[in-house]
Amino acid sequence: MSGYCDLILKNVSVPSGIVVDISIKDGIVVHSGSSGRAGEIIDCKGLCVLPGAIDMHVHMRGGKEQSSKETWETGTKSALAGGVTHVVDQPNCIPPVTDAFSFESRLAEAKEQAFCNFSINASVMEGADLPGMHRAGAAAFGEIFAAPSSYGEGVPEKFLRQAFREIEKIGGLATVHAETVTEGIDDSLSAHNRLRSPEGEALEVSKVIEIAPENLRLHFCHLSCPESVNLVSGKNTFEVMPHHLLLSTGMFDDLDTFAKVNPPVRDEETRHELWRYWDRIDVLASDHAPHTIADKSAEFSCAPSGIPGVGTMIPLFLALVYRKKISIQSLIDKTTVNPARILHMNCAGFEPGMRGDFTIYPKTAEIIDPERLHSLAGWTPYEGMEGVFPEKTILGGDVVYSDGEFFRGNPRWIPGDGYIE
Ligand code: DOR
């Protein structure tokens, strides 16, 4: 090809089996085939190259009150060191994102600190200005708490109906956290699993589907069991999290708060059953919900729910690709192609016109060690499991992570399609 590019990735083996050189200019792939001249050339022979992933469900925390758990800087560095180049932040931060003003202030914090691309979602709660946040550039509405969780109050059904109508009218995407919480003493992982049961999750999913207006774009967050996955069909979409596919209650002491998460980690049988739906899962997202070791060291009933995961999601699943448990294309579809389609955004990829975000991995896995992760949480429930971690991550043609070192390239805010400049 002719013309001068910013970066060429040479000898990239794409999932179809062919080997190409990828040329990137002004942040975008401009050619995939033979290469020309460039400011920088990286030879990827013998390595695995994936498009930068979109993690469409993360809690970046930050702000005055939650910066000990995570900041936009540490959270987005964790993302880059885990092969994620675009994070979609959930709005249950403190203060929550409820109108154009709080949206702008969240955006300013992200713009100042982020190391990877990012989008920001809008809260759905009484008094929230949904059209205002849509115009300000919210990527989606939610996660909408159809049941209470850490830093999220359950939304009453009457209001949910009204909010759905409003989101339908403006053409937004509603993302829903569906659970039913039963009264009881929440003092162990098994109790947590019982009080926020698979049946309760499925019940709430069916209620939400029933009240959703016909043309609403509806996406379910973190479905954890076959009962609820089976209910989602047609144009509605859903995501599943690594912890529901890789962890089960029996792997932990029953009082272990570090595995406390909403929806809960299920039993081993449910985890196995969920794998049977791998091909139907639209999105794999992390629900990166960092809480510090000190926060998690509280008594079970008081400990916050949530598991950090943006830095380990792709490494864990790429290790499964290497072990031939899943195909590389299925991983790319669930972490890049489908999130972009659902969010109406461009994604990274090997074809011209796609974002020039890539991650370069070695051909061997390593044992996950919390000391080598970058989240302020400082722990991971995947310690000791196998993960394949990037050697380099590229954002819009710039090397932004290389062998443990970060470089601030040109991280971008990716607004939702309601954005009016
Ligand atoms: O376990 C969870 N933690 N589930 C959620 O839905 C929220 C999250 C958090 O923000 O910590």
Automatic annotation (TrEMBL):
<dbReference type="GO" id="GO:0006145">
    <property type="term" value="P:purine nucleobase catabolic process"/>
</dbReference>
<dbReference type="InterPro" id="IPR006680">
    <property type="entry name" value="Amidohydro-rel"/>
</dbReference>
<keyword id="KW-0479">Metal-binding</keyword>
<protein>
    <submittedName>
        <fullName>Dihydroorotase, multifunctional complex type</fullName>
    </submittedName>
</protein>
<dbReference type="GO" id="GO:0005737">
    <property type="term" value="C:cytoplasm"/>
</dbReference>
<dbReference type="InterPro" id="IPR032466">
    <property type="entry name" value="Metal_Hydrolase"/>
</dbReference>
<dbReference type="InterPro" id="IPR011059">
    <property type="entry name" value="Metal-dep_hydrolase_composite"/>
</dbReference>
<dbReference type="GO" id="GO:0046872">
    <property type="term" value="F:metal ion binding"/>
</dbReference>
<keyword id="KW-0378">Hydrolase</keyword>
<dbReference type="InterPro" id="IPR002195">
    <property type="entry name" value="Dihydroorotase_CS"/>
</dbReference>
<feature type="domain" description="Amidohydrolase-related">
    <location>
        <begin position="49"/>
        <end position="363"/>
    </location>
</feature>
<dbReference type="GO" id="GO:0004038">
    <property type="term" value="F:allantoinase activity"/>
</dbReference>
<dbReference type="InterPro" id="IPR050138">
    <property type="entry name" value="DHOase/Allantoinase_Hydrolase"/>
</dbReference>
<dbReference type="Pfam" id="PF01979">
    <property type="entry name" value="Amidohydro_1"/>
</dbReference>
